[in-house]
Write a structure and sequence with these properties.
The protein is mainly alpha-helical. Helix 1 crosses helix 2. The protein is about 40% helix and about 10% strand. The protein is globular. The termini are far apart. It has one domain.
């Protein structure tokens, strides 16, 4: 992927996760929620065939949770990419192909 295409893929996630005010800050200087948003934006923009999101909603604010739910709902419409969401509850409003419940 060329750098211009990578920037184009990343830009909507920067906006959707409200990261624009933090673009000039080093990663270590960001609070936990903002660091998670940076990593989430990278994962969303990666175009990987399979993407694992481990507790993706933890430490996110409500607008970011809503944005991520929207991205996942949209992604569910495209079978060329798989998303594995590991969390304690299935995300609301997202069509899931399968739910695997692990015993305690």
């Amino acid at each position: 992927m060329n750098p211009d295409h990578e920037a184009d893929a990343l830009q909507p996630h920067i906006e959707g996760l409200s990261l624009a005010p933090h673009l000039d800050k080093p990663l270590f200087a960001l609070p936990t929620g903002s660091r998670r948003k940076v990593l989430m934006a990278a994962a969303l923009a990666s175009q990987a065939t399979v993407t694992l999101l481990d507790q993706p909603f933890m430490a996110l604010d409500r607008p970011s949770i809503d944005y991520l739910l929207g991205v996942l709902a949209e992604a569910a419409q495209h079978p060329h990419r798989a998303w594995v969401v590991a969390d304690y509850e299935a995300p609301m409003g997202v069509a899931l192909a399968r739910v695997i419940e692990l015993g305690a």
